[in-house]
Structure formats: structure tokens, C-alpha cells
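Per reviewer request, we include the raw input and output of the structure prediction for the construct analysed in the revised manuscript.
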Amino acid sequence: MQEVNKIDILGMGVVKISLSSIIQYQIIFQKGIGMSTIQNIFELYKDEIIEKEEGKSFIPLEDFSAFISYFKGGEHEIVLIIYLDDREDSQKFPKLYIHSKKIINCYHSNNFEELLETCNDLIEIPKAEGLLSLFVIDMGGCPIFTKIMGKDTKFIQNEIHIGGFISALFSFSKNIIGADKGANLKEINFGNQIFHTIVKNEVIFAFLVNKMTPLLQRYIYIVADEFTKKFDKELKDFNGEIGKFYNFEDTLKIYFDL
């Protein structure tokens, strides 16, 4: 691939839309953009995309802007490319359009390896600072994946106890709030540090931070999505073996300054 300067943006997604009796979509690539954001943008512009089959649009959103480019990928098939960036910066759109043309060429030539390389290597997203630890545990408190920044021995030595503690708090909160209410514990406050928690597919994600920032807030949901998507089969068949989850640290390095 010809060497090209990377484009700094907030996130990017590539989605294949199948136009059958039931319209379905498959995420081919995502980086810095969550599945909920992809779904919201698709639902918002679904009628236009399906009717025109090819085009591009600029979408001003609450916290950022989106540039979308879509094209016919094959018979009964449309490919949607979504770029997220700051609201004030529209000067990148020509570069993003050129980048999207590279993806189109790769897709039409069935060169998916180069497509992923084009998405991964030519797009740079910001890394969030401030993540102190991540604990991924099952609802029973069994550790699945742990990442502790630095050499904080009190966390390293008490990994299992921390998992059990967080799981017990979730169980207690459900008993108090009521499981039928659909509510979950969101934060565990330790004064100058906070565990921000997410439950997805019966897995608890506990992110320890000093202070939550908008970028951290966005990334923790993306990381939870990517973990459950990447290890869907392993989580369904989880038998206590955690070695298969070790390589998720590579994904964390994409989003966080470790």
C-alpha cells in the first residue's frame, strides 16, 4: 500500500447492509465507534441510503459530527462507511472521501485484507487517559479478564476478592431495586476513585478511574461491546479458563494510554 499520512478522527465504522425481505446489517470494521452509534446513524438515514444506494452526507450530532459515504457493494447490498470527528472540523471531509474511495476499491476487488489494513493503518483515533484498572467478571464474581495499570499490589493481590465484592454489590442492588426494574449499579464510589460499571451479556465490566471524561465514557462502552462480540462463543462456554482472553489487552491499547 502506498504510504499515506494518517487521518486523525474520533472513530470509524464500515457496515454491510443486506437488502432482502428483512433489511439486515453486518459490521465489517469498527474503531472508536460503538455499535449503538452505528445503529442510530443507520436508522436515522436508512431510507435515504436504501433509496439512493450511493451518496454521502454530513451529520451534525450533539457531541461530534459524522461523515457518511455509502455505495452499492453488490446485488442487493450496500456498504456504509461512517466517520466521526469534532463538530468544528469539516476540513477533513475531502481526505475522508478519498479514504472512502480506497475502501470502495478494496471491497469491489474482494481484497478484504487490504480493506481492513486501509481502515486500521490510515485512521488514527485519540487515546483516553485516566484508566487505572479494568476488571471483567461473571455475575458470580469469577475474574475473566483483568488489567491493572502500573504495579498497584493491593489490586493485584486482591483480584479475586475485588471480583467477588463487585458481584455481591450487584446482587445486593438487584434485591433492593428489583431485578424486574431493569436497573443496574452504575458506579461504586471510593472517594477519590470510582468504579464505573457496565453489564453486558451477563458479564460485569468495572472500570476504575480517578475522573470520568467524555472520551473515557465513550470508550468504556465500546470496549464492553468489543469484548462481548470478540469472545461471544468463549463466554457462552466459559469454564473458568481465562487464558483465551489475554489477547484483549491489544484492543485496550487502541483506546487507552496504558
